[in-house]
Amino acid sequence: MVEDSRPAAAALSRSSAAMVGEARARRSPLAVLRALRPLQWTKNLLLFAGIVFSATFDELWRWEHALAIFAAYCAASSAAYLVNDVQDAELDRRHPLKRFRPIAACEVSPRTALVGAAALALVALGVSLAVNLESGALLAGFLLLQLSYSTVLKRRLFIGVLAIAGLFVIRASAGAVAVDVRLSPWLVACTGLVALFLALAKRRGELASGASEALRPALRGYTVQLLDQLVALAAGATISTYTLYTVVTDVPDALVGTVPLVAFGLLRYLYLVHRREVAEEPDRVLVTDWPILGTVAAWMIMVFIVLSGSPPR
To answer: In sequence order, what are the residues at sequence separation of 6 or more whose Cβ sits closer than 8 angstroms to the Cβ of residue 156?
Structure first.
């Protein structure tokens, strides 16, 4: 008799949990905003690379297009995060940190998240098409790759991190297309390598912190030793590629002076990833570590001064 009542009790428990989740959602109007992950919109600052490295600072229409495409990619990114969190909700609930995400914590229902994702994707596509047709095509590709990553690619050895690099390359390309400038292939390659470095470092940090494949299928097949080698390789390739960009292309000679800043930023990031307290979510280092923030600010100021005040070779 006791055993017969267990399924009913379990069903009642699930029903109660759902009701509690809905109540929490009603009491947490900021939960949806947190689910959009606005902190990660900083990744889309890469969309301004086209206007910055083309040194077209004084043309208002280019800034208008750059800001519009930045807003579009923030919306598209949030749409992808919502879909990803719905997809991974069960796994996230067993994760020591990700269980606090609004969808995993039942603060935002899957239905609300998916409806919001569809609305954001449509808005993003509409804004990008208003900029120009090529921008719309790139954003459609971005959304498709994000969806593929969330559902399939992130569970594939090496392919997942390469997909992340591809998303950053699309961002850089979209920023250039939106303002009608040519972005150096060297700079595009450097963008992809930096993204690959960050993705590999994140997986290395998760493994080192004790995350298991059961909780993070994206870690399947990796080892800390393998990732240490791949991260070092990606860091070296990034520094080399950026150095070559400043030396062999037609940018001002003084831009080579920014190479030490790039090298220091990568090495500082790698140092922090090896510290256990930041290993679980190393991407947060980019917006919380003052030496890295100072290095990025110094790099941006120096690039602006060099490109706006020095003629190309």
So the answer is: none
Cα distances (angstroms) measured from residue 266 to each of 182, 193, 232, 235, 241: 26, 11, 10, 7, 13
Whether 178 contacts 50, CB under 8 Å: yes
> How many residues are listed for the chain in this entry?
313
**Dist CA 150 CA 148 (whole Å):** 6
Query: Tokens 């100072």, residue?
Result: 294
Quick one: 178 and 216 in the same domain?
no
Q: Examine the fold and report which residue of 182, 203, 238 is the final residue of a domain before the chain moves on.
A: 182
Residue 76 phi/psi, 5° resolution? -65, -40
pLDDT tens, position by position, 165-198: 999 999 999 999 999 888 889 989 999 999 999 8
How far apart (Å, rounded) are the C-alpha atoms in residues 233 and 191? 15
Name the pTM for this structure: 0.83
- 216 & 168 share domain: no
**Domain residues for 198?**
184-313
- Two structure tokens written together for 165: 């690099």
